[in-house]
Amino acid sequence: MHGLTLEAIVVALHDHYGWEGLADRVALRCFQSDPSVASSLKFLRKTPWAREKVESLYLFMLREQKRQRGGQS
Q1: pLDDT at site 3
Q2: Which of 9, 30, 38, 52 could form a cystine bridge with 43, CB 3.0-4.6 A?
Q3: Is the pLDDT of residue 72 over 70?
Q4: What is each CA distance from 42 to 27, 30, 60, 64, in whole angstroms?
Q5: In b/e form, how buried is each residue of 1-33, taking b as 16+ CB within 10 angstroms?
Q6: Distance CA 46, CA 60 (A)
Q7: Which of 58, 50, 55, 46 has its CA nearest to residue 31?
Q8: Torsion of CA 36, 38, 43, 44, to 10 degrees
Q9: Cβ neighbours around 37 below 10 Å, total
Q10: How far apart, in whole angstroms, are the C-alpha atoms of residue 39 and residue 58?
Q11: pLDDT value at residue 9
């Protein structure tokens, strides 16, 4: 995760899954109730266990994207 900001991670996940998809994968209220990047960042910066879940989902998303690209070659 070197060089990546939490904001970049949240934006990438939102772009890929949308708020509803994020809420389905990581059950956090910041993704379920009136979600926004700003409110999510505020919560995740104060909550290490939630940040770890989001970072894990980001890594999973990257692996899935790489696997899909590898299968399309």
Answers
A1: 84
A2: 30
A3: no
A4: 16, 9, 23, 27
A5: eeeeebeebbeebbeebebeebbebbebebbee
A6: 23
A7: 50
A8: 100
A9: 14
A10: 18
A11: 97
| φ, ψ of residue 29 in degrees (nearest 5) | -60, -30
23-67, pLDDT tens digit by residue?
999 999 999 999 999 999 999 999 999 999 999 999 999 999 999
| Higher per-residue confidence, 2 vs 29 | 29
Distance of CA 27 to the CA centre of its chain: 12
What are the residues whose beta carbons fall under 8 Å from the beta carbon of 28, sequence distance 6 or more? 40, 43, 50, 53, 54
| Amino acid at residue number 53 | K
Phi, psi (deg, nearest 5) at residue 68: -65, -40
Tell me how far CA of residue 57 lies from CA of 13, 50, 54, in angstroms.
8, 11, 5
